[in-house]
Design goal:
By secondary structure, the protein is mainly beta.
């Protein structure tokens, strides 16, 4: 197995508004998250969140520390939220095993040492997507399914944004330090997410898009409300959204996305809405 990582530094919004397409993608788009029997991750300086993918096909994959953490174990000073977007898999946490099926999630608190990822079937391997943020307290490991989530039905077919927001790894469901994660599913024929958009300057956010057909694309919108930018994305790619940025998207097909937040405030409703008519 291999562990690959890269570092992304934070950028000021006055600089970002001058970025061309290539530079915008270089700083904010996360591609190639899944490669066989590997961990691929991006360490972002936005609230020190780590975005990663783990794809155990032929052998178990162990979550190892990386140089920027300066720690013996990956979770010595961190917590992690994990979603399985592939075949059935299992995660061993200090000897205790958790089975994760498609779209199920697992929270692991600070201080756990040995984290091992496996697939039940190499012909239909698990794909584990994760976010990790710094933590100062140790909370229990818990598996959360959609049946345990707080679910909000939003939007409508008339505005092409009918969706179900599954709040799973959030403080209304289980205790965490600062990491908050959930999964939003758009119904057939609906293509807009988080519209009307919002910003929350007390925390950043990452969107991971999946269930996008191979021949389709999604356009992610970011930037300040009066200085928006866009990034075209494919299936199983993620995008980093700074705390000063909106985050919304429209695709050529309905899709699902996992959102993850880290920062100062864990209140899901802590956001400042932006009316579509005020977007520029």
């Amino acid at each position: 197995m291999t562990t690959n990582f890269e570092i992304r530094y934070a950028a000021h919004y006055n600089d970002v508004k001058h970025y061309d397409t290539e530079k915008l993608r270089e700083h904010f788009l996360v591609t190639n998250l899944f490669s066989k029997d590997s961990i691929n991750m991006v360490y972002s300086h936005y609230d020190r969140i780590i975005v990663g993918g783990i794809y155990p096909v032929n052998e178990p994959v162990i979550l190892k520390t990386i140089d920027p953490l300066r720690s013996e174990n990956f979770l010595d000073r961190r917590e992690i939220g994990i979603y399985n977007i592939g075949g059935k898999g299992k995660i061993h946490v200090d000897g205790e095993m958790y089975e994760l099926d498609f779209k199920e999630s697992l929270y692991i608190g600070k201080g756990k040492k040995e984290i091992i990822f496996e697939s039940f079937n190499d012909h239909n391997p698990a794909k584990f997507y994760f976010n990790s943020s710094p933590a100062h307290l140790n909370f229990p490991t818990r598996k959360i399914t959609k049946s345990q989530a707080q679910i909000a039905e939003l939007g409508s077919n008339q505005t092409a944004n009918h969706r179900f927001v599954n709040k799973m790894l959030v403080n209304q469901v289980l205790p965490t330090c600062q990491l908050q994660m959930g999964m939003t599913e758009l119904t057939s024929g609906n293509v807009w997410n988080t519209m009307p958009p919002h910003i929350h300057d007390r925390r950043m956010e990452v969107y991971f898009y999946f269930e996008i057909p191979e021949d389709q694309q999604i356009c992610h919108f970011m930037g300040q409300p009066h200085e928006t930018r866009h990034i075209w994305m494919a299936n199983e790619q993620a995008v980093i959204s700074p705390d000063w940025s909106i985050h919304s998207a429209c695709a050529t097909h309905n899709y699902t996305f996992i959102w993850g937040m880290a920062g100062e405030n864990i209140d899901y409703g802590d956001m400042d809405a932006v009316e579509p008519k005020n977007l520029l």
